[in-house]
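writing this on my phone so excuse typos. first protein, seq and then structure
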Amino acid sequence: MDAKQIKITVADSTTLGLFSLAIVTLVASSQKLGITDGLALDAFGCGHFWHIIAAYSELAILLLAFYVLVAKYLNSMFGKEILCTGKPFMQ
């Protein structure tokens, strides 16, 4: 009798989590920048300057999350490194 090797793959939930993070960050930063209307209030009384700094940092996090999302998706789809993500800090 010949033995068959079957590889079972399951969906990787990392891409879904990164997409969720990116969308939430997009909404939060767009509200703080005044692009969309919403409940983005200065709850801690930090002032307008720090409100804008937070908005731009959220926008940078959004772009980084989208890059990692697309890199993970494409690299796993093609089975090779299409977009580089670097080496892990710890093994």
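second protein below, same order as before
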Amino acid sequence: MRRVLKPQGTAFVALMPRNGFIRRTLAEPDERRHLTQPEFIARILEQGVFINDVPGRFTNGYGINPPKSRLTSSSMASRWRRYSLRRNRPE
């Protein structure tokens, strides 16, 4: 990310767990039909790939697998604080 950002630029990163896509689908009545499709569920749980065919909605996404991910909110917050403190030191 450092190559993409301007010096002292800010990056915003959002991570969504795989089961978040299933919860999201449960919350939308006209999308619940996807939950009857075994390949839809398998693609989310095994690969983290969410593909929705309902126009005008959240259509594509990739979810992380929290138990296998080192990117938890607490670890990211800790890393960000360390990075921030290191970057903001007077030279």
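The two ends are 22 Å apart (CA to CA). thats all i got for now
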